Amino acid sequence: MRRRSRVDPAPDVVLPITPMLDMAFQLLTFFIFTYRPSVLEGHMDLTLPAAAEAKAQKKEQVQPDRATMDKELELPSEITVAVRTQQGDASDGSINQIIVQQRAGDTVVANPEALRRFLEKARQELNNPHDIKIQADSRLKYQYVMQIMDICTRAGFTNVGFPPPPDLGTPPR
Amino acid sequence: MSHGPAAEGSLAEPNLTPLLDVVLQLLMFFMMCVNFVTEQVNEDIRLPVAQSARPMEKGLVDVLFLNIDSLGQLIVPGHERPLRTQGEINFYLRQQYTDARRLVDLRGGAGSDVPTTVIIRAHRDANFAAIYQVLRTCKDLGYRKLQLRALTKGGA
């Protein structure tokens, strides 16, 4: 008689899926809690050259030893947007008046949208169509300053400067 | 006489494979979107809205964040309380500029401008006077690159 060798069947491999699933859900929960959608935050550049550089026409004309007389954060411009707010304790920091100052004279603008149309038109007649100044009152809220700056940028002005507020240092009435 | 085994009810087993696929897809998505490096931004500051604000530049390395709250105070990481007076703010900015200037000089850039970009994140209700003072101080110290942060139209 010939013995027949028996081959034992391979043992079944059973993977423990449950703890693996637990780990997967742990990881998923962690990443869900740490997920932070990107904020739609943008920026607007300000360039602050030294006064000597700002006023020089050519690089050779830069005089770094010259005493800086500039008291403003600005480049030379032909047009200024003066933004006024209410004075006194009742002021809420909102825009009360918008005045566009040019060599030809001052123009009072009704609202920010009218300002944009006015600036687009006025820019075509300027020798320097890139620079503009925004002179805001001290108590004007920053969001309105940015609103005006946004309008100036959309009108085509690339360099926006800020003269000192006319009432800077004045205690509120 | 024994009765046969009780009639077995049919078992309904949901097919877990596609469900697990979805779970793993979600896991992959959140793993790809994770970002552990955060900027020095203060969540309490509500930025103003500006349509012409350009997307943030991700290549900026040398930056100085200035978070200004609605009262015009400068919030500095690591300080117990915000910097309230103009003197404190000036002192802090001068310290930062001195450190940056020293670093530039050590790298052989003596005489060149400090390449630090100052990023100003101011609350929309802050008075312009506080913002102007900070801008003026930065300019007087020698910073040449400044950014004003704002929310784009979609982020408002």
Overview of the structural elements:
The complex is a heterodimer of chains A (about 170) and B (about 160). Residues about 50-70 of chain A have low confidence and may be disordered. Helices cover about 30% and strands about 20% of the residues of chain A. Chain A contains four helices and six strands. Chain A has helices at about 15-35, 50-55, 110-125, 140-155; strands at about 40-45, 80-85, 95-100, 105-110, 130-135, 160. Chain B is of the alpha/beta class and about 160 residues long. In chain B, about 35% of the residues lie in helices and about 15% in strands. Chain B has three helices and five strands, in the order αβββαβαβ. Chain B has helices at about 15-35, 85-105, 130-140, and strands spanning about 55, 65-70, 75, 115-120, 145-150. Chain B has a four-stranded mixed beta sheet, covered by helices on one side. The radius of gyration of chain B is 27 Å and the shape is elongated. The relative contact order of chain B is 0.17. The chains are: A alpha/beta (about 170), B alpha/beta (about 160). At the A-B interface, helix 1, strand 1 and helix 4 of A face helix 1, strand 1, helix 3 and strand 5 of B. Strand 1 of chain A pairs antiparallel with strand 1 (about 55) of chain B, so a sheet runs across the interface.
